Amino acid sequence: MQDLAWGGATEIAAAVAAGTVSARAVTDAALDRIAARDGALGAFTDVTAERARARAASVDTDRAAGRALGPLAGVPFAVKNLFDVAGLPTRAGSAINRTRAPARRDSVLVERLERAGAVLVGALNMGEYAYDFTGENWHDGPSRNPHDTTRMSGGSSGGSGAAVAGGLVPLALGSDTNGSIRVPASLCGLFGLKPTFGRLPRSGSFPFVASLDHLGPLARNVADLACAYDAMQGPDASDPGCAARAAEPVAGRLGAGIGGLRVARAGGYFRMGLTGEAEAAVAAVCAALDVAREVELPEAARARAAAYLITATEGAALHLGRLQRQAAAFDPDVRDRLIAGAMVPAAVVAQAQKFRRWYRDAVLAVFAGVDAVIAPATPCAAPLLGQKTFLLDGVELPVRANMGLYTQPISFIGLPVVAVPVAGALPIGVQVIASPWREDVALRIAAHLEAMGVARAQRPEGW
Amino acid sequence: MTDQDLDAMIDAAARALGIAIQPGWRAAVRANLVVNLRMADAVLSFPLADEAEPAPVFTA
User: Fold this and answer.
1) Which domain, by its residues, includes A88?
2) A421/B57 Cα distance (integer angstroms)
3) B8 touches chain A (CB under 8 A)
4) B10-58 confidence digits (pLDDT tens)
5) What pTM did the predictor assign?
6) Chain B contact present for A405, CB below 8 A
């Protein structure tokens, strides 16, 4: 391996399996990079160096003994700090949770990645309690965008975006309730997968909105994304929201091409509010895929409103006790949104959940005629840290609530999405959206775009 | 609703919920509540049949 900082996960695993490099050397190099460079990024909140070295040594021992290695052998990875990591309190970006007892076991997805040979090196910064699209954290400081450290990484999985785009690790896990994987993937120029709702178990992660929470990976190439996704699939009875569905591996099918796939661009709502860079990215992807059709996802604006309200109210219910006892210990932006969420009449939430089923049926009717839909991931590239508002179609809107304009109507009904990065002065992402349980379609299209050079994770200058 | 209506709603709901809102927080809570109520209008104004099922289905 020539370049451990920018080498992909599957490339590292192949080198470890071949004996070109040891897992311990890969892990030490990752820990050295984190020690040297994370001060400028703010991606990590915990580094699990001792555990990582022990885990890497066991991978090397397995290889020396001739035992089979997993597909992610020796691959360093890190997780948003709402994932349980044995021995650490699961802080979920908050100050309040730091007094919790340390987790007694890892989250199921961490266990599954380590079973595939990967090596956990730490936990990552995030917006408090995942109610965020900026990557700024009131308590720990912001995670910074490696493409320009004066800019946002995007949230709420901001540390996940910064760590992978900054070359600290090739793979990270995040969560996505309304866009929190896809927004940092877009702003940091990465591939991000938000699987179908219910595909990956959330067991052992701190929740936000049970109706909408998803977990998934971020990586610098599609093969790594698919390999990690395959390693994490499969039911888990301890998450009632996880489907009893067998794993459907996709990594071996990425090269199948896009022949026969019907792809359309999302019109209407998804054409409004776009900045020039977002429009150019969507247009480049559509041109590469020869997209000639446009479809409308009906009532997308109302879907976003319903997702917004379910989030505000379920989030408020989750945190009500803490708001009663420790309101001053929250990030003020999160606290004030949660308090206002607690005051929404219950009838509104019941109606939002009924509308959700209506909207699902209406969107699935669209998918009867297409296999994938292309839409912007964010309205713009990374805003400056501290920036509170931006102009969309001449209207000044809060950044924090509106970076997810285009992601919210999609996760609202749990559709699988791959956010693909389009390079530029600053990168920006595009959503490749498929019908439920067809992650394979979105990943194949992403792989095709990557092979064409249209989608790629651009290495930030100096990193 | 007027600011006065919103403040009355905030005061009553905060008492009912047992949340002590500091004076410096009120403007932001009110602004967020305004957004929530605007979103609520969008959801409530959509006609749905009485028989419409909510999205989550509990399985015993």
Assistant:
1) 9-301+349-452
2) 36
3) no
4) 999 999 999 999 999 999 999 999 999 999 999 999 999 999 999 987 7
5) 0.98
6) no
